[in-house]
Structure formats: C-alpha cells, structure tokens
Amino acid sequence: MHSFKEELDSLKQDGLFRQLRLIESSQGSHVSINNQTLLNLCSNDYLGLCNDSRLKIAAIEAIKKYGFGSGASRLVCGNMLLHEMLEEVIAEFKETESALVFNSGYCANLGMIAALSTKDDIIFSDRFNHASILDGAILSRAKLRRYPHKDMFSLESLLKQASLFKRRLIVTDTVFSMDGDLAPLYEILNLADKYDCFVFLDEAHATGVLGSLGKGALEYFNIKSERFIQMGTLSKALGGFGAYVCGSKTLIDYFINKARAFIYTTALPPSVCASAITAFGIIKNDDSLRNKLRHNLQFFRDGLRERGFKVLDDPTPIIPLLVNDIKKTMDFSRLLFEAGIFLQAIRPPTVPKGTSRLRITVSAAHKEEDLEFALDKIKMIGKQLGVI
Ligand SMILES: Cc1ncc(COP(=O)(O)O)c(C=O)c1O
User: Which of 53, 57, 274, 353 is the most exposed place for a label (fewest CB within 10 A)?
Assistant: First the structure.
C-alpha cells in the first residue's frame, strides 16, 4: 500500500496528479460544478447531442420495449434487434458492406488491433495516436514501430525495412485527439499501396463532423480504398456511448471471431443503440448542427488569432492552446474556472513532455456570446500568465 502512496506523492510533486471533477448537471454548453454554472469548453459533445431530447426519448422507448440490460455477450444471447439495426444504419452511413458495434472506442481499438496483428506482423503507428491504439498494438505482440507525428518520410523508411513481415498495418487517428490536426491520408494511402499495407483509421473525432455529410475523413478527403479499416466512436459527436468498425462482411466476420474485446464482453444495452440510431438520423438528415459547429469554430479560431494566439486551421472542433509548462497550464485552467469557464489542463503522459496545453473544444451548442466571453477571459488570463 505504501508504494502506491509514494507513487501518488511523486505525481503530486511533478504536478501530474489527476483528480475527478463532479459534474452535477447534464452535459451541455454549460455544466454545474460545486453549485456553480460554468461554460464548458472541454467536452467531445461536438454537436450538443448528449442531452438532446430526441436521443433521450429513443432511449426511454427502447427501455420500455426491450428492458435495460442485454444479458450476455453478443455471441451468447445478447445480440438484440437494436444492435443489428444500428449496424445497418452505420454501414449505410459509412457506405460499407457491413459494420460491427463495440462497447467503447477504447475496447474497439484494443480488440481490433490485437486481432489484426500477431507476433509475425508489424504495426506502424503515429506517435500522437490515441492511447487505446498503442495499448492494442502492445497487446497484439506484433513488432511496433512508432513514427514521428505525420512524418511520411520516416514512415516510408520504416516500411522499406518491413517486407518480410506477414501483415503490415498502418494505424492512425484521422483527427488527432489532443492536437486537432488531420492525418495525411492521401500520402498514407500511397505508401500503403506501395508497400502493401492495411490502414486502420480511428475516426473518433471525425464521425459526424468531417465532410459535408459528416461521414468522416474519407468523405472530407474524397478517397476510398479497400485498404482502409475504419473505426469510430458513438461517444463524441454522436453524443452517446460505444464504437463501431465498418468494412466488408468478411472483415466484420473476422472481428466477430477474433476480437476478444468483442467476444468476451456483455453487449451494449439496447437503449444505447436506440439513441445512436437516432443520432445518426439527425446527422444524416439535418446539417444545421454541423453548420453551426463550423460557424462557431471559425468564429472562435478567428477570435483567438485576433487576440494574439497561434492557431492552426484544421477543420476540426479541437483547438490546442499550448502553454508547455505544467504548472502554468494548471494555473491557466484554475483561473479560467474561477472566471466561470471549465477547461481542463492536458498534461503528460496524455501529451508529450513540455507540451502541456488547454485542449479547447467548441460545440454547436455554444452561442456566440458564450464564445466571446471565453475569448476575452482566455486573453486576459493568457496575458496575466505571460502565455501571449
Ligand atoms: C482518437 C480516439 N480513439 C479512441 C478513443 C476512445 O473512445 P471511447 O471514449 O469511446 O472509449 C478516444 C477517446 O478519447 C479517442 O480520442
């Protein structure tokens, strides 16, 4: 027990101790913490669907009809109508032959990457990929080669040395979760063609957001290839919980048979699937939320630039504000909290050492006046701390 405490004390000393914050309200543009209402600038609820009445009604109706729990894993007796309906909706939305639902993005990456590669295979992973990708790669026991962020030259030189491996898998987030930038998918596909690789795409932050129909990065870049295996989550723009993979029927059958994180876990409650079906319907039939999100993003990025911050132009809802120093980042977050804004500090190991940041996320649920308020407070505190 003692050594646990020592480890925690050392985290505290380094400014890396993490604590849970209690949200007393539902999710939304504002949340309640310690009986105080704060503007929320750190949720992945990009379209404001977490508390949408249509999703709530869908869940309630599904509970009335199918009960709450699913009783077992999909392969035992937990495979219910709403799971399969959701998979049909996803396959149609993503224009693939088939789809499969997982219990979370973390589980999906762990299960699929470990199923795709064995010790005779090799995995190439962008250094900024999500932790679940790294964990899946480690679990697979394949040779793991991590290339510097978006560095295609390094990726190619690693690929050149990998011809003897049985299966070569390139894995990348399409939208990087802490930086908000896009993976160079054209270049990655060119290399995959040249060196005969599969490409596993994590669309967690792209689904529902990127592309004019919200279908994700492949729509945005207007590319298609049999080499792509696309996973995404239902937990971010979709406002719910769970994840999916989509592709050929053969690929889906492969995961049903090989992905342990699919096989050995209780299926999602049907109500979660019902809400996800409704969320896909909203995303498919109504682009007003996506347009509002785009407007808000432009407004916020412009506002930050006008106030002296350096901001990239990627079309994603994630805007990193680099502070670098851990203590200063924590101070920034605390002072914002005191000024009525909830914006968590992101520190190592989530991001590389020396790149601590505020990871701002903008949502369709924000009003312009909310964003204006945030911009002014961020500028004021940024100046006070010497960040601008
Ligand atoms: C890129 C990426 N992949 C996967 C996940 C995991 O998804 P989930 O939260 O649904 O487990 C996340 C979530 O933080 C993510 O950012």
Answer: 53
Task: State the pLDDT at residue 1.
Answer: 59
CA of 106 relative to ligand 1 center, distance in Å: 6
Question: Helix count (H) and strand count (E) of the chain?
Answer: 14, 13
State the CATH architecture for 53-285: 3-Layer(aba) Sandwich (3.40)
Asked whether 243 lines ligand 1 (CB < 6 A), one says yes
205 in active site: yes
What's the CA dihedral at 69, 72, 73, 76 to 10 degrees? -140
Q: Which residues contact 287 (CB under 8 A, 6 or more apart)?
A: 212, 213, 214
Q: Cα(265)–Cα(72) distance, rounded to whole angstroms?
A: 8
pLDDT tens figures, 134-193? 999 999 999 999 999 999 999 999 999 999 999 999 999 999 999 999 999 999 999 999
Does the domain at 16-46+287-384 match CATH 3.30.2310.40? Answer given as no
Active-site annotation holder among 130, 236, 366, 379: 236
